[in-house]
Amino acid sequence: MLIPVRPIPATLTLATLIPRKKVRPVPSEFVLKGGRVLDSTGERFEDIAIRDGEIVGVGPDLSSSTVVDVSGCVVAPGLVDLHTHLREPGKEEAETIESGSRAAALGGYTAVVAMPNTTPAIDCASVVRDVYELGSRALCEVAVAGAITVNRSGDALSPMAEMAALGVKIFTDDGAGVQDDRLMRRALEYAAGLGVTLAQHCEVASLSEGTCMHEGEVSARLGLAGQPAEAEELMVMRDIALARLTGARMHFLHLSTAGSVAMVAAAKASGLPITCEAAPHHFTLTDECCASFDPVFKVHPPLRTRHDVEAVKAGLRSGSIDAIATDHAPHPAQEKERPFDQAPPGMLGLEYALALALTELDMPLADVLARLSWQPAAIAGLGSRHGCVIAAASPANLMVFNPEETWTIDATGGASRSSNVPYVGREVRGKVRHTLRDGVFMVRDGVAQL
Length: 450
What we know:
Distance between the termini: 42 Å
CATH superfamily of the largest domain: Metal-dependent hydrolases
Number of domains: 2
Number of strands: 21
CATH architecture of the largest domain: Alpha-Beta Barrel
CATH class of the largest domain: Alpha Beta
């Protein structure tokens, strides 16, 4: 028998946004004028009229008493991140839901999926409720991923039905793969009955334990313990087989190897209900970065070879990789500055993902936005509110960015409480100008408004 749970609203309204400081007055009715509109239906030059949080008109020469000039910019559905570590509850020194959502909004995101690697883990209804409550004060919508197993320990299934009743649509033990084959099969069968998606961090512990980077020529030269590509690929292979057996939806987190990309592409081609994502660091950085012994380059799965990077890029271009997800993983300086083999893995990504994708990926702009917006929105079950076609009666969850503006990534970490940025000094292209959530400027002229 399920324990009764208090329902959580499917949509967070403007009334639930509690400002942390005074908000610049914003009219309830205005027009975004002169922009290039780009969504899943294509692109066109049109104005967008917004009233009371909703798009009320799209077309040429729209007028209003308040006009926001977006000439030279692209107006697109807000980005959606499938993989964000907000750290709260329990590790607020690294990040809070507020600070993480501020970074997300500055990066063009109107929704993020909060991973359950918290203290306590998001493995029961009460913690889900707590995170939703904290998220009601965020600058973007905070969807919640629940843990597959209790405390993410891999021993017993979590009460997924109770969390699903609160609106949780994705479950993962991210940070650790579910090692027990029988338990993973049971989890997939349970998920199929609930209509939710399991997302796997593919890492066979017996091959990855004690490692700190990719196993190969570079690790041998540096004398650091390496994790072979097979640690990821064996679990990808197993879970493809289990998805075939159970018919359950399966999402693969942060694929990093050429072999993983190839297996998932083949599985999708055979008709299995599988999706996957890649993180910006896995298409921009290689294991050679670790030669500096700078722990900012330590991440799990680890940075791979140039061959793997090119395979990830090719998978994004072909569409066999569905989404770009940041795996935004903040850590306080005192932890990240430990020796390389002792430092925690993880990098910041929310404020840099769009620009890195535009700079590094040889893809049409529409395809880049598909991987960052409407495709992850669909995977997360957020497609009715985010990544929507820009048309009358659609929610005004939008971002406006200049695709040609260049800027240099610095070491501050932006809005995050942490500063573990691996891209310092890199010149990138594409800058977010405005981010609107339910028609309210969360970011205006590049400045967070709450």
